[in-house]
Structures
1.
Amino acid sequence: MALAEKTYGSKAFTESVMKERLPKSTFKALKKAFEENKPIPAEIADIVASAMKDWATEQGATHYTHWFQPMTGITAEKHDSFISPNPDGTAIFEFSGKELIKGEPDASSFPSGGLRATFEARGYTVWDPTSYAFVKDDTLYIPTAFYSYSGEALDKKTPLLRSMDAVSKQAVRVLKLFGKDDVNKVVATVGAEQEYFLIDREHYAKRKDLVLTGRTLFGQSAPKGQELEDHYFGTLKQRVSDFMKDLDNSLWELGIPSKTKHNEVAPSQHECAPVFESANLAADHNQLTMELMKKIAKKHGYACLLHEKPFAGVNGSGKHDNWSLSTDKGQNLLDPGKNPIDNAQFLTFLAAIVAAVDDYAVLLRLSVATAGNDHRLGANEAPPAVVSIFLGEELLDVVEALIEDRDPLDKNSVFKVGVSSLPSFPKDTTDRNRTSPFAFTGNKFEFRMLGSNLNIAGPNIILNTIVAEKLDIFAERLEKAEAFDEELKALLKETFNTHKRIIFNGNGYDDNWLEEAAKRGLPNIPNAAEAIPHFKDAENIRIFTKHGVFSDIEVHSRTDILIENYVRTVNIEALTAIDIAQKEILPACRKYQLELAKLIKLKRGLDIGIDTTIEADFLRTHSEETDKLAKAICALTGVQVEAVSVTEIEEQAKSYQTKVIPALNLLREIADGLECYTPAEYWPIPTYTDILFSAK
Ligand code: ADP
Ligand code: MG
């Protein structure tokens, strides 16, 4: 047995550990509670807690923490020790069922979007038994949901779990119509491919912009970028390979199924992809993966950058969200299948997804909207901000055949008359389109608009909810049908016909597509400041409340938090840029000019007829550009001060988007120009060449 096989999951309180350590009856009761989504009875919780504590302390744990994902998107934790002192001066380790199930962190400083007055600081964390507890840094981590005293969700996990229930409920209803009476639950499955950069820590530490904002706010492109495409899938450098090995081992110990690793398109960029899991586990595991990447990078002398666009001029980092639905009997509902019945069922789910993505394209768009992702979407390295679906030629033909009442063109596709009267077709696995925001890839959809930094819960909450909504409408109609086959055929034909505008198999990076998309009436929302406020559109609130995913209040508070986050991000960038330009770049330029002026003066003083016109011209240009820099700093300061004082949050976001960002860009442009004309020894911060190409 390979060592990794032995250590896989060794730091997670997995089902296999529970089975081994819990009394049979407790294990059974616990599993039943999981499966039926019921609360865990107190006496069972006590037994589980005690077994968990014994297991964790054997792993060296002295503390436990309720681990949760507040709306900032970063994980949070507060540690308590297991210590319980005795009157005789000794102590024992204790952990009760109550402590396992519920925690009450002082949560007044987490964003609640006005959900919780500061005097009511109480927030509760509640054990999520569907995600395994684990040991890290001598602490037992218990994945939990986080909500307020009055029951509103204050985190990302709670609505994700609610949305998984919603889509499960509706999918089970639809499956019943296909005779799948034995299916009790359908699970949304997700595999998140994570891109990241590794750069030398030494360089990182010298760049305030990277440290404070996660991206470079200045930097002339290196002479070489990614044009030779020599990094993509290239041989791994030894140091990178050592990092990846270390990362894999740490992920595997926690039971995170890391599978693929390779170099990405941009220099110093890499990717790590796991085997898919339930959306909930995938979300928890992706958060842990990002955290471990940063930590392990440090050990190897690297800084791991997870920002969506750390460097201008080369690709940023994304996160592909592979999504599907799977029954508790193990059937992947997006696997086209071999026989007509399965095909009909597949086409029904496909139709629901196509309709959902078309009707709720704006929701999907805003689920990936952040200040950082604005640099990627539509920049010819990531899909455009217009949502569309790629189906591949073969599947598109099947869909068109349905609309046009004809046979599919493919001779292998047999039009079977019978239970379903729907075409049978072989699965297409060869077609690949990397430019589509939402692509069918054989047996799953790949949502490609996510930025690398994002908590994947957000987009998956949306996907689950919008698909639940369409499945609900389908079930309503089909349940009432007198002749199921005919009704289904009519429903599919109608649905594909209504929503075919969202299907686009061509090149999503092509400008012609944007024109075509506009003609088709597809929404194109270019930036986060404009996208986010749509979260609270009436139709969106209607489906969220109908499916029990968000209450009206929760939607409003979340919208505010997302916009606030946008505003704060851009504000920090502006202040950081001002700081660097003012305190580092400007003085460096003046210093160089002084040296240059001294040189010119010296040469002229020699009185041997040295021609100093070129140097003098150069000095003048350098000085003029530096004056422009000084003005640009003032201009940015001006619009930043103006934006800070706008009181209405949506107006404020607009102010940052339309005034602060352009001023920031102008400042950068001038500084980057100066970088070209200033000797390396005077330039105060590591350059793109240093950062992207010099790590060994
Ligand atoms: P591709 O070549 O299309 O990127 P891969 O097989 O490499 O496909 O898978 C990419 C990601 O998709 C992996 O994380 C994988 O686990 C995930 N994936 C595969 N099948 C499913 C599924 N049914 N549901 C969700 N994710 C899936
Ligand atoms: Mg992929």
2.
Amino acid sequence: MKHFPIFLAVEDRRIVVSGGDEAAVAKLRLILKSEARIEVYADTALPQIHDWAGQGRLTLIPRALAAGDAAGAVLVYAANEDDAEDARVAAIGRAEGALVNIVDNLADSAFITPAIVDRDPVTVAIGTEGAAPVLARAIKADLEERLPPVLGLLARVGKAFRPMAERLPMGRKRRDFWSDYYFDKGPKAVARDGADTLPATLSELLFDHMAAEQTPGRVDLVGAGPGDPELLTLKARKALDRADVVIHDGLVAPEILELARREAVLVPVGKIGFGPSTPQDKINALMIEHAQDGAHVVRLKSGDPGVFGRLDEEIEALDAAGVDWAIVPGITAATAAVAQIGQSFTRRGRNSSVRLLTGHDVKGFAEHDWRALARPGEVAAIYMGKRSARFVQGRLLMHGASPATPVSIVENASRADSRMRAATLADLPNAVEGLTGPAVILFGLAPRQAAAARIETIQSKELAL
Ligand code: SAH
């Protein structure tokens, strides 16, 4: 981030604009949304600026900006559409202690003006550091549509009610009250009776919430999917939005954790690679402790919580403690991997079942029904298989699998840094060499041609001969 977004206090402070043409008008449209005192310096100005001056919304000084004019101003806009004049004005602004923006000159500006979605007092500022104004406009249009115009009104009335709401205990109870207001009762009341009844709605709502019992805590065991935030389910997204505490594995992508409610406490418990992990008992105790405190806990696991996720142990602990829970399934790594190589897990005439295997279990390398798996056409997704690749290869060959059986490896499936490799069973150990991220081995599947361009083919020298 080369530009750090902040909201500047401008009420009753001066913002100075130099210039009277289109560029100045465009900036003024935005600045006029604020409660700053606005001064425009221009020899000649467009009628629009004269109109604003006539309405008392800004002061027009009909001459070029001069030394001393920027003293005490918070911001100076050089909008003269003339490089030399802009440079002169910017130098005065800087010398007199103001932050200076030169319109359409990112390099010499101390700040940039974002695209704004205005639901005052709720303001959304969108910036792309000058990289993609088109994108900023598209995001703005999207938000304009999504944020109801009534939002600003709700927030203004809500703000005045804040001292009253302090009668509710801080934390969950108060949050529940406000979300009930903003997302349910408030908009409904405005739609039904107009804005005037909002204060009454708030009082009633406060009374209801004060009378209500504290809701007990709960745990949602949520699948975070393979990494791409777009592969989250809507349910997972909602759970993150409401979470008080998020207890997450190391494999959960940072972009997904970003979606957790801002006030949510994030507790990492996962292990990275083969590093130290939080003992299962500790994870169970954490979930129970927070839920018994009344928190909505999201236990966030990569992929699907029911696939190699030690889900049962957690559920048993929650049951034993009498804590309410629910499972939110997710897209498991294998499904993301198979999609990425452009294949399907089952295919008429080839295989009517598919196995999800782990290369490792509590006792070390995991044993499976190798004979069944070695038959032609069988398909399996092998999790945690990098270190056991040689073992798996040995077992399968020993039980009669063809060395030419295709295998595909997908590392960091669904993520931007994903890598794919195509090989055969004969080359499986080579094919996993050097992979550093989580990977799924797809046994019995070769990438479809269309996906093959992005895939490394691994073939040992011996085999090529
Ligand atoms: N519950 C998870 C699996 C957890 S076990 C799920 O359903 O996906 C951890 C293993 O999952 C890793 O060793 C790796 O084999 C696999 N894995 C998890 N995320 C992955 C990803 N994005 N790409 C490839 N493999 C992944």
